Amino acid sequence: MGAYLDTTKQMGLQNCGMYHISLDDPRSVQQAIATMLSLPDRPTAICAWSDYYALAVIHELQRSGIRVPEDMSVAGHDGSDVATGFGITTMAQPAREIGRMTAKTTLALINQEPLPEKRITVQTTLEPGSTTAAITQDNN
């Protein structure tokens, strides 16, 4: 989340805050969306923690009469089958590469070997879907 916050600041974008929702409690999604929609300067986009959360957000926005992406853009993070199946814009993670690096690190720890790297960075890929749109005067 730190990189996201740093980037929004560098780009001069307004940070409307972070909202914590639980997929186990639909009321938390309803409350978060209601709070965002009641802001005087309402956001034009929501970046969800995962594609599953993005789907829950989209459902609640539509239930509230908000059109996605015409009124509000939504993006997820995973590159999961959920994103593909529902056309959600997502930041795809290289799951196989993450798994390979995790196994390598775990084996090094088990064998009490020095860790290959302290910080591991992977390249994500933007996979555009039908849930995001360009900012226009109408939604700016």
Primary descriptors:
LacI family response repressor; Rossmann fold; transcription regulation; alpha/beta; 140 residues; 4-stranded mixed beta sheet; 5 helices; Peripla_BP_I; single chain
Give a written overview of the molecule:
By secondary structure, this protein is α/β, with parallel strands linked by helices. It has a domain at 18-93: Rossmann fold, CATH 3.40.50.2300. The protein has five helices and four strands. Strands 1-2-3-4 form a four-stranded mixed β-sheet, with helices on one face.
Topology as a string of helices (H) and strands (E): HHEHEHEHE
Query: How many beta-strand segments?
Result: 4
Within CATH, the superfamily of the domain at 18-93 carries the name Response regulator
CATH architecture of the domain at 18-93: 3-Layer(aba) Sandwich
Structural class: alpha/beta
Radius of gyration over alpha carbons? 18 Å
Coarse shape: elongated
Q: Order of strands side by side in the largest beta sheet?
A: 1-2-3-4
Specify the biggest β-sheet.
Answer: 4 strands, mixed
Q: Tally the helices.
A: 5
Q: State the helicity in percent bands.
A: 40-55%
Text of the CATH class of the domain at 18-93: Alpha Beta
Strand percent estimate: 5-15%
Q: Which stretches of 5+ consecutive residues score pLDDT under 50?
A: none
The averaged pLDDT comes out at 88
CATH topology of the domain at 18-93: Rossmann fold
Distance between the termini: 24 Å
Keywords: DNA-binding, Transcription, Transcription regulation
Pfam family, one: Peripla_BP_3
Protein name: LacI family response repressor
InterPro entries: LacI/GalR-like_sensor, Peripla_BP_I
